């Protein structure tokens, strides 16, 4: 085989003058030094960038940043997917006089939620109560799990979930520290750098026209992974063992949309059977379209109405009421 | 095998060292084997189709060159065109034409019924068919001598960097390059790597990130307010540019590392001031192919005003159909044909108006860019939508201005991230008008290290990883 590389050509070397060989060797050496320097630069930049972004994560007021940096102790824990954002924290705190922490997130799957709650129990004393919106059993979402990579250094559970979701991505996260911050969660942490996330709620108003357009949506079926109710049941047992009271709820849906949900009853009974707890069903308790952000989410005003219902049904109670009890 | 995947990275690391170690025929064999492997990774059964096309055009090209009778030469050309377009029509358009015929006759109350075949569209068929056709047409026009080596011709047709999504490299550009052995060269490596990294950034960080928002917007437009849809359409314009030009950059850069020069395929098209200019800056290798082999063959602008307009419309309609077997693509081509026609009709008056108003040059240029970009976005709505109904819903909701507020935009973080990435794209592309990046990459090692590093860091921070296919693979 003939080695045919301009700076190294063996044939050319044989023919070349010594000074030419020296020149070519020097040129090649320079290029190899550049490559070595470049690799070092990339690694150093990656680690430095990773370190700086970690400071951002640790300084953020975002719920999970507070969770993993010892700033999230609460008497009342709230959990759900985007529908769990209707647990509007400032209003609940005002009414209960309890310190609360809402761990809900858009599309939060139950396996990740279970990991977050267990991480909470690892770092803090058990809360008095945990309220869970059970619609978070409706999916597993590997993509969202990988989005939690900024918290990889703080949680063995998140690490395991990411490894399980995509071992290749987990390998990449080890190789590049910057890659850990390639996530929507990091962007939110950045957004909440100097502001509280406690008032986070879906801020939109369903218009009258949109509310009529529900007719365009087909039948809505909740497809849930088979293991999801069991994971929730495990979590419920774990919380109870730690001494917390667990309340399961299902928040409101827009009535015309609710009518298109064909298997809601089956879904609720599956959850109840798995957990052994009743699900407080609030799915049809709000009907004014002004109170919705879209068909599945309440806006701020709707959240307050929902929270009032939670008090009426005894799911939540104020510190004074608790003392009287 | 897609460029943005781990198997391709491994493939490349195995391919390149041996490529440079070999020379002459053995290098061509290596390239051909690697190219067939690259293509066969997707579906090995369709390798037969490439080999068939290669054999046909190689044989016809050789026959045409020795044929002196003009009639016979013409027959051979038509044979080549018919076979190439026949294969393309069968694999890409059979179901489309069959369904359209059924729908058309049903208007008259007639029923045609046959079972639609499940024909899989072979990846890249539109690209290599056009590439192969250019060879026989150029020989017919006596612009090119036939290639005596089948091995070289087969390598030209199947060369993996541009096999599946272009650029469409013509035989007279590439075959002479395959006749020479290209030695390893550091400058080529650096320039090639720079272009590949920039292409990866455009694809993985920009196009794939915007795709999430775009897919939502076009997937269920009735769920979103008008501002959300305006952003979705704007993002799609950027997404398709970054996706396709990103692929071209990777292909051109890859060829450059191997010592080959491919033609430029995109030159900041959204800065075009009119539609003729747009088509000299967008997918240049396709538009110049259509110009040289279709528009000019139809008579171009040599047969009077009205026939010029007709030729423009036919060229753009067929250009639309080339992109996909669907009426939305044809309509996209129609809109661009219409834009070109209207431009021819109205631009003298438009220019006079500005001359009379003495509009500053910058403002005039900016206004033209804005008009061309907005109309291009309008056409993209049809290109991206899965049906006319869907496109019309989007247009209707956008025009109503209902929900035209920031609070009605879902996933604001995606919008902010998209905006930031588009800002980087603009910064680099606009600064490249003034700064000679290529020169800096070759002669300034520190600039080279930091620019390569910055691209890698940006890809790590913003890339979407999951080997998303390139949009143009479907064409």
UniProtKB/TrEMBL annotation, chain B:
The keyword Iron does not apply. GO terms for molecular function: acyltransferase activity. It is a multi-pass membrane protein. Keywords: Acyltransferase, Cell membrane, Membrane, Transferase, Transmembrane, Transmembrane helix. The chain crosses the membrane at residues 44-64, 76-96, 108-130, 150-169, 321-342, 362-383, 403-428, 449-473. Its main location: membrane. PANTHER family: ACYLTRANSFERASE (PTHR13285), PROTEIN-CYSTEINE N-PALMITOYLTRANSFERASE RASP (PTHR13285:SF18). This is Membrane-bound O-acyltransferase family protein. The lineage of its organism: Bacteria, Pseudomonadati, Bacteroidota, Saprospiria, Saprospirales.
């Amino acid at each position: 085989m003939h080695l045919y590389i301009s700076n190294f050509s063996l044939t050319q070397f044989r023919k070349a003058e010594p000074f030419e060989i020296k020149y070519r060797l020097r040129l090649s050496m320079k290029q190899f030094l550049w490559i070595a320097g470049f690799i070092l630069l990339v690694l150093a930049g990656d680690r430095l960038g990773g370190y700086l972004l970690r400071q951002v994560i640790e300084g953020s007021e975002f719920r999970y940043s507070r969770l993993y940096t010892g700033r999230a102790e609460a008497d009342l824990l709230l959990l759900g997917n985007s529908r769990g954002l209707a647990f509007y924290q400032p209003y609940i705190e005002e009414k209960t006089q309890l310190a609360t922490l809402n761990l809900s997130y858009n599309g939060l799957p139950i396996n990740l939620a279970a990991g977050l709650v267990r991480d909470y129990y690892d770092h803090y004393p058990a809360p008095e109560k945990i309220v869970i919106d059970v619609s978070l059993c409706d999916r597993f979402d590997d993509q969202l799990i990988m989005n939690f990579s900024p918290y990889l250094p703080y949680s063995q559970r998140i690490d395991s979930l990411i490894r399980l979701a995509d071992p290749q991505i987990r390998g990449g996260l080890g190789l590049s520290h910057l890659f850990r911050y390639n996530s929507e969660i990091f962007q939110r942490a950045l957004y909440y750098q100097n502001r509280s996330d406690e008032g986070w709620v879906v801020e939109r108003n369903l218009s009258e026209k949109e509310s009529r357009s529900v007719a365009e949506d087909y039948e809505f079926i909740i497809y849930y992974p088979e293991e999801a109710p069991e994971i929730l049941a495990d979590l419920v047992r774990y919380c109870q063992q730690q001494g917390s009271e667990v309340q399961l709820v299902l928040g409101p849906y827009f009535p015309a949309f609710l009518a298109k949900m064909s298997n809601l009853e089956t879904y609720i009974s599956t959850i109840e059977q798995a957990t052994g707890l009743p699900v407080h069903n609030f799915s049809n308790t709000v009907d004014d379209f002004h109170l919705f952000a879209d068909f599945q989410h309440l806006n701020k005003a709707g959240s307050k109405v929902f929270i009032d219902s939670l008090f009426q049904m005894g799911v939540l109670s104020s510190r004074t009421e608790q003392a009287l009890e | 095998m897609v460029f943005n995947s781990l198997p391709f990275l491994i493939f490349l690391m195995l391919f390149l060292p041996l490529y440079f170690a070999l020379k002459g025929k053995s290098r061509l064999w290596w390239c051909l084997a690697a190219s067939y492997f690259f293509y066969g990774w997707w579906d090995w059964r369709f390798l037969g189709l490439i080999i068939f096309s290669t054999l046909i055009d190689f044989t016809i090209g050789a026959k045409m060159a020795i044929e002196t009778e003009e009639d016979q030469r013409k027959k051979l050309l038509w044979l080549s065109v018919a076979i190439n377009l026949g294969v393309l029509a069968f694999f890409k358009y059979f179901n489309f034409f069959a369904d359209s015929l059924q729908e058309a006759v049903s208007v008259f109350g007639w029923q045609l019924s046959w079972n639609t075949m499940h024909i899989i569209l072979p990846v890249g068929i539109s690209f290599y068919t056009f590439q192969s056709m250019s060879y026989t047409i150029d020989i017919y026009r006596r612009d090119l001598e036939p290639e005596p080596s089948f091995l070289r011709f087969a390598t030209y047709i199947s060369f993996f960097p541009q096999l599946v999504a272009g650029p469409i490299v013509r035989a007279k550009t590439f075959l002479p390059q395959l006749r020479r052995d290209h030695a390893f060269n550091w400058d080529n490596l650096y320039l090639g790597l720079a272009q590949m990294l920039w292409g990866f950034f455009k694809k993985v960080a920009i196009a794939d990130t915007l795709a999430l928002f775009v897919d939502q917007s076009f997937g269920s437009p009735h769920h979103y307010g008008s501002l959300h849809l305006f952003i979705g359409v704007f993002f799609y314009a950027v997404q398709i540019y970054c996706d396709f030009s990103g692929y071209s950059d990777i292909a051109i850069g890859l060829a450059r590392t191997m010592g080959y020069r491919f033609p430029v395929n995109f030159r900041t098209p959204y800065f075009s001031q009119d539609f003729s200019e747009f088509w000299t800056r967008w997918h240049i290798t396709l538009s110049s192919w259509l110009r040289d082999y279709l528009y000019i063959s139809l008579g171009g602008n040599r047969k009077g005003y009205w026939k010029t307009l007709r030729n423009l419309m036919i060229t753009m309609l067929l250009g639309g159909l080339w992109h996909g077997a669907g009426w939305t693509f044809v309509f996209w081509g129609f809109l661009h044909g219409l834009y070109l026609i209207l431009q021819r009709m109205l631009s003298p008056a438009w220019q006079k108006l500005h001359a009379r108003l003495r509009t500053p040059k910058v403002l005039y240029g900016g206004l033209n860019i804005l008009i061309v970009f907005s109309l291009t976005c309008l056409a993209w709505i049809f290109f991206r939508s899965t049906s006319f109904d869907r496109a019309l819903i989007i247009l209707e909701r956008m025009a109503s201005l209902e929900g035209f507020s920031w609070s009605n935009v879902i996933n604001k973080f995606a919008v902010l991230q998209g905006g930031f990435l588009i800002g980087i794209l603009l910064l680099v592309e606009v600064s490249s008008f003034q700064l000679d990046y290529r020169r800096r990459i070759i002669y300034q090692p520190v600039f080279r290290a930091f620019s390569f590093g910055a691209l890698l860091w940006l890809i790590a921070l913003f890339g979407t990883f999951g080997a998303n296919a390139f949009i143009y693979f479907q064409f």
